[in-house]
Design goal:
- This protein is an alpha+beta fold and about 80 residues long.
- The protein is about 35% helix and about 10% strand.
- The radius of gyration is 14 Å and the shape is globular.
- The two termini are about 25 Å apart.
Length: about 80
C-alpha cells in the first residue's frame, strides 16, 4: 500500500507518521486519511480506513525490513 500512496518503490512511505506522544509510528491512511486526501468524500473514509487496516494488518505488527537508526546513524 505504501507504494500506491507514495508513488515510489524505495524510501519511506509518505503515510508513515511518527507520534511522539505515543512513541510509535502510525499509518496516516488508517489514522488520518484526510491529511493525505483532503477532498476525500466522507462516505469513502470509513471503507478506506477498513480496507487499509486489513491490507496492512494493523495491530498485527510491522512487516517492514527497515532498521531504525538514531541521529548518529547507529541502530538503537
Amino acid at each position: 500500500m505504501g507504494m500506491l500512496v507514495s508513488g515510489k518503490r524505495h524510501g519511506a512511505c509518505l503515510a508513515l507518521r511518527w507520534d511522539a506522544g505515543l512513541a510509535r509510528y502510525h499509518c496516516a491512511v488508517v489514522a488520518e486519511p484526510q491529511s493525505l486526501w483532503p477532498r476525500l468524500p466522507g462516505l469513502l473514509r470509513a471503507p478506506l480506513v477498513w480496507l487499509a487496516s486489513r491490507w496492512i494488518a494493523a495491530g498485527a505488527g510491522c512487516d517492514s525490513d527497515l532498521e531504525p537508526k538514531d541521529n548518529d546513524g547507529e541502530s538503537p
